[in-house]
Amino acid sequence: MSDLVHPVLRESRRVELRGSGERISLLSLLRKDMASNGPAWLPVALALVAIAGVAYADHLVVSLSLVYLYTLPLTVGAVFLRKEISYGLIVACIAFHYYFHYFDSPRHIHLGLRIFHDLSALLCLTFVVYVIQRYIERQESLVKIVERQRDSLLKDVELAAEVQRLFLPSRKPAIAGLEIAGMMQPARGVGGDYYDYFPIDAHTIQIVIADVAGKGVSAALLMSATAAGMRLEANRDRNMLQQVERLNTEIGAVSDPEKYVTLLMGEIDTTKRIIHYVNCGHNPALLFRAKTGTITRLGASCLPIGLAPEQICELASENLMAGDVLVFYTDGVTEAENRLGEEFGMERLSETVRSGSALCAEDLITNIYNAAADFCGDDFNDDATILVVKCKFDRSSTPSS
Questions:
Q1: Which candidate among 76, 122, 353, 374 keeps its CA 20 to 30 Å from the CA of 199?
Q2: pLDDT score for 135
Q3: pLDDT by residue (tens digit) across 50-107?
Q4: How far apart are CA 85 and CA 34, in angstroms?
Q5: pLDDT in tens, 200-230
Q6: Parallel, antiparallel, or unpaired for β 295-298 and 261-269?
Q7: 382: CB partners within 8 A, 6+ apart
Q8: pLDDT in tens, 330-381
Q9: How far apart are CA 231 and CA 244, in angstroms?
Q10: Do residues 332 and 384 lie in contact, with contact meaning Cβ atoms separated by under 8 Å?
Q11: Which of 256, 282, 277, 281 is nearest to 266 (CA)?
Q12: How far apart are the C-alpha atoms of 248 and 312, rounded to whole Å?
């Protein structure tokens, strides 16, 4: 089959092989960290052109020895070329100097003086190359150490992100009359946002969204403590005010005064069609009223968690109707900034919720996130978390008292 290959194709393959062979031979002259950066011929050409230039000057100037000018091309060689090649260039430079300055020159210099001069030049140039090589080796070693530490840190961050994801709900709750969906997108590998939902019975569910002050690993650790505290509280009585009080004590005990958690907890009863909630310094949730097309804000009623040892919170309530939509979010959404420094803000969020109120919960979340991402150029400064609850009550029935 190979005999049937067109002669032009065979020739082109030979040219390709020759080209790749030349590149491989050039790469073999370079140090490993330089072999993959830029054209292979450039550092080799720089070193050879510099040697040729100094050799030519050494040939023209017969009254003065220019052997130490070879330091320039040897420095270039020590930076870019392999150690063996760099030291080999020293011998080449001394040979050039010996030829141009002694054999190709009318000057007559005593043999002993010539030998002393060349040996001293050889030692000096070797020392220069050795110092540069040692410096380069130390730099390479430092770069490798930094890369290993970076890789180790990235693995730790990935592990922390995996642990953090374990605190987030893995599946949607099955509560008749409600459609619930949530998402959390950290601005970095790990984040300080948290959301969850805890079914109480077949028609009641408790939902929570929280945001830790700060970003990165420290915020993620406090978020994990908050999530663990919420999981523990979910197994105890469901009195939200007492839950918040105990959580405030627990978080305050493990965090410094500069770290706090904004939290919004709500309990939805589909039988009574009502939401009871407590907002601890969190962004006001949005309640879209399907009947009127208006939006109600579920504002804060007390300080964030962990900010004050003792605080008094108030429980608030809102009636729900078929078609209503609840949107919980963190400030990473509303504070997303565009290039002009403008924030996405409550008005844009409200309009996005209003225009997408007919969508399913997951599609509405996607719409909100995409609207904020388009506004800020997909460059969020903070973690973005969205939780949507759609009320799909039977319109023909009435809530029980």
A1: 353
A2: 85
A3: 777 777 776 666 555 667 677 878 887 777 777 777 787 887 777 777 766 665 555 5
A4: 14
A5: 888 999 999 999 887 767 777 788 888 888 8
A6: unpaired
A7: 187, 215, 330, 331, 332, 335, 336
A8: 999 999 999 998 999 999 999 999 999 999 999 999 999 999 999 998 888 8
A9: 13
A10: yes
A11: 277
A12: 11
Structure tokens at 156: 């730790």
Which residues are registered as beta bridge partners of 391? 178
Residue in 79, 312, 330 with CA at minimum distance from that of residue 208: 330
For the chain, give the number of residues: 401
**What is the set of domains in the chain, with CATH numbers?**
2-153 (no CATH), 167-391 (3.60.40.10)
How far apart CA 187 and CA 178 sit, in angstroms, is: 30
Which of 122, 106, 110 lies closest to 59 in space, CA to CA? 106
Torsion 259-277-225-370 (CA) sign: negative
Backbone angles phi, psi at 336, to 5 degrees: -65, 125
Cβ(302)–Cβ(280) under 8 Å? yes
Q: Give the number of other CB atoms < 10 A from CB of residue 207.
A: 26
Question: Which residue in 181, 228, 225, 229 sits closest to 207, CA to CA?
Answer: 181
Residue reference for tokens 């029980």: 400
pTM of the model: 0.66
Phi-psi region of 377 (alpha: psi -120 to 50; beta: other; left: phi over 0): left
What separation in angstroms does the CA of 255 have from each of 244, 249, 305? 16, 10, 10
Tokens read off for 373 = 């991402």
For residues 61 and 38, give the distance between their C-alpha atoms in angstroms, rounded to a whole number: 36
Residue 222 class from Cβ within 10 Å (0-12 exposed, 13-18 middle, 19+ buried)?
buried
DSSP state letters, 292-354: T--EEEE---BPPBTSSSS-----EEEE--TT-EEEEE-HHHHT-B-TTS-B-HHHHHHHHHH
Q: Is 201 left (phi over 0), alpha (psi -120 to 50) or beta?
A: beta
Question: Looking at the DSSP assignment, which residues form a beta bridge with residue 213?
Answer: none
